[in-house]
Amino acid sequence: MPISDPQQEGLIVSNLQPPETLHLARMTYEDVAAVLATQFDRVIIPCGAIEQHGPHLPLSMDADHADALAVEIATLLGRTLIAPTIQVGCSKHHMAFPGTISLQEHTYAALCHDYCVSLATHGFKRIYLFSAHVGNFNALHAMLPSLREAVGPDVQVLAYTDHQAWLREWRLAVEAAGGDPDSVGGHADIAETSLMIHLRPDSVRHDQLVAGHVGAMTTEQLNRMWKEGVASISRNGVLGDARGSSREIGETCLHATARLLASAFSAESST
Q1: In this structure, which of 35, 49, 88, 269 has its CB flanked by the most CB atoms within 10 Å?
Q2: Domain span holding position 181
């Protein structure tokens, strides 16, 4: 697997004693003030979605994934706390499936803006945003200049939006754990299903693991998906194939993606 040694990859390894919890919401204001005084002045804003994930996964898949990824990334980076996950995202292309809740892009941007301004006001010097839901990537990329302007020059705001690198890492991880990398499609597929088997095994309906649209989408199909929704490409909402999923694949995907994002944040923050 690529990216196996945090120090070798230039990640931040802190010698400071970490707080009892990395989760901001579980701390008191005195706890937060104390850790800021010891240079725990970096914070992650995880983002997810509440949307369909085929007939076999819960709507909370992306939010649950973001929760778990944030802990791994914060640990790799060091001196980093975790803000409450923004659970709902931009999921307009999933609205054909009941239960999906979608934010307008300006609503999502306003949430991220208010998170960043609040955290910067308290003294956090570096703010990392990532989304376990690809549908948020375009909005994150577009809002980044305004977020940086809002917090001022003394605070660094970084966002991860490289969808293709994420999918490549999943394919490598799936193959390394004994699965079929061609089953990775990016939504309710072998990677996401395996992640939920690892994170919340009771939430996975194993008797309903199915394939959806398998294989690379053409430009025409991609454009149709964003315009007309996922249902225009996959009737069951799956992009990829969920069959063959396992806890081992899920654990490998989680660790690999965390290393990918932590390495990217570390490299960008050092430039």
Answers
A1: 49
A2: 24-269
For residue 192, which of 102, 69, 89 has the smallest C-alpha distance? 69
State the amino acid at position 138 in one-letter form: N
User: What per-residue string of b and e applies to 183-198 under the rule 16 or more CB within 10 Å gives b?
Assistant: bbbbbbbbbbbbbbbb
Asked if 37 contacts 102 with a C-beta cutoff of 8 angstroms, the reply is no
How many alpha carbons lie under 13 Å from residue 152 in its C-beta half-sphere? 9
pTM above 0.90, yes or no: yes
Task: Tell me the β-bridge partners of 162.
Answer: none
pLDDT tens over the chain, length 271 residues: 333 444 444 455 445 567 889 999 999 999 999 999 999 999 999 999 999 999 999 999 999 999 999 999 999 999 999 999 999 999 999 999 999 999 999 999 999 999 999 999 999 999 999 999 999 999 999 999 999 999 999 999 999 999 999 999 999 999 999 999 999 999 999 999 999 999 999 999 999 999 999 998 899 998 999 999 999 999 999 999 999 999 999 999 999 999 999 999 999 987 6
Q: Give the residue among 161, 138, 144, 141 at the shortest CA–CA distance from 226.
A: 138
CATH code, domain carrying 99: 3.40.50.10310
Query: Residue 255: exposed, middle, or buried by beta-carbon count in 10 A (0-12, 13-18, 19+)?
Result: middle
Question: How many domains does the chain contain in total?
Answer: 1
Strands 80-82 and 126-131: unpaired
Is residue 152 domain-resident? yes
